[in-house]
Amino acid sequence: MLKQISCDQFIIDGKVRGPINFGKGLNVVLGGKGGTNSIGKSTFLMILDFVFGGNDYVKKDSDVQKNVGQHTIKFIFEFNGKDYYFSRSTEDFQNINVCDENFKPLADKRMTRDEYLKFLSKKYNLDLPGLSFRNAVSRFIRVYNRQTVNERRPLQAVNQEQGKQQVYSLLKLFDRYSPIEAREKAASDADKAYKVFKNAGAFKYVPIVDTKKQFKENVDKISELKDELSDLESKNNEGTLNLDEIQAEHLRNIRENLSKLRDCKNTYISRLNVVKANEQAGPGKFRSNYRELQQFFPDIDLNRIEEIDKFHHQVTKFLKEEFEKEKNSLETNISEIDHHINELVTEARKIKNQQAPNVQTAILNDYADKKAELKRLEDENKNYEKKKELKEAQKDQNEALKTTVNTQLAEVQHLLNEKMAKLNEEICGSSSFQPPHIELKANNYSFETINDQGTGTSFKGLILFDQACLELTRLPFFIHDSLMFSNIEIDRKDKIIEMYGKENKQVFISIDTIDLLSDKAQQIIKKHTVLTLERGGKELFGRSWNEQQSN
């Protein structure tokens, strides 16, 4: 539990305020009798959030940061009889210092915020499947200027949070997420398997048909091909066709590769001929043509033309070595292709001689083509059936997930509504008053008191929701600001204080104007008050900066 908080900037009557000590159960921050504002009640609750790993104190309490400046909060936790000392600065708030008993930071013991939150989660026994410490407690820290005081959205951590995230956070807090997590993984795996197979077919990585009509057409083609293959076998009296699917496909691939290699060889030969022609070209070859030009153009400058041609000749000479290299490379490539062609021809002959020694090559090729086509069609249909199976598995897993989620939600909903009804009867003194009611769905929820949408009733419902969660789960504490009590009927407010007073887990509240409460409620508050704040130098930081300075 949280045992103590102190800060050198906490001031009372011009002096540093002493440590603020907390106990089990209720801990009260008490304001002035007249409901005085701007004395630090909500700010102190924001500091509690800061101690529990939140960042809103630094990011949202801008007036404090502006008027107080950088400061360090020191605090003690007690777990299993052992004290743990820490400090956290508003300047370096992403790190938490592990300290000695005098709050001197220990060398090499500083924690990152994530490490610190994991520490708290473990010590508070909140390390449940899928649940982080802040995900568990942040929703129940209800302080002005945080987005957790919406009386209609008790599960909301921030305004933009999706309904599904809020609902799932509750399931995790109730330790109902494990069966869902297992189902989520199975559904995710099924989704992934189906999408991968579907995309493989769409991009033609595997042979597949897309429609039932195509599937049926393939069935007919398969039957026709089998008949044609049977006819080829029966008509071939001189030889025997013993090609299996693999051999037929292999023979077909050999033919395709031979065709590609021969095309490639022809391309190389054409390039080689061009290189040889360029290599033999030179200016001497055209010199007689220059003399003929002079007959038609007597004034032509043959010397200039011969100089240009001479330059070209020099360039050709320089390029001769490159031509030679290119020629050698092309001849090597042609030789290698010839070698591969001979290998494939030999391999094709070997297959023919072994499997169909007396069969004409044309018949063998036709047989191989039909065998390969048959295999392709059968693979397309097989993969179509596989895709259907994966689609069904995807559907089944998602339906199982939906059923599991709904089952867990129904159980949590029942527990909460039953507990809130019991608490409401205690607070209202009768079962005739409608209790708050929550309805949970997979992607959202509703929370209301049926037939009573009044502000006081709505905040009473929010308080009872938190109390129910405190009693039903491992939630270690909650924090309620004074704004939550403002519109609640006095007698019901008395009962709420009595409910707080009975709690063993830590409850932190701020409250003021208690003189209207019952004597019993006032006694409970005074007994559990850990910090009293009021005007006149007794504000949290010893002053109220909303007061204008006198000249």
UniProtKB/TrEMBL annotation:
Gene3D superfamilies: P-loop containing nucleotide triphosphate hydrolases (3.40.50.300). Keywords: Coiled coil. Residues 212-249, 320-404 form a coiled coil. It holds the Pfam family DUF2326. The keyword Coiled coil applies. InterPro entries: DUF2326, P-loop_NTPase. It comes from the Bacteria. This is Predicted ATPase. It comes from Lactobacillus gasseri (strain ATCC 33323 / DSM 20243 / BCRC 14619 / CIP 102991 / JCM 1131 / KCTC 3163 / NCIMB 11718 / NCTC 13722 / AM63).
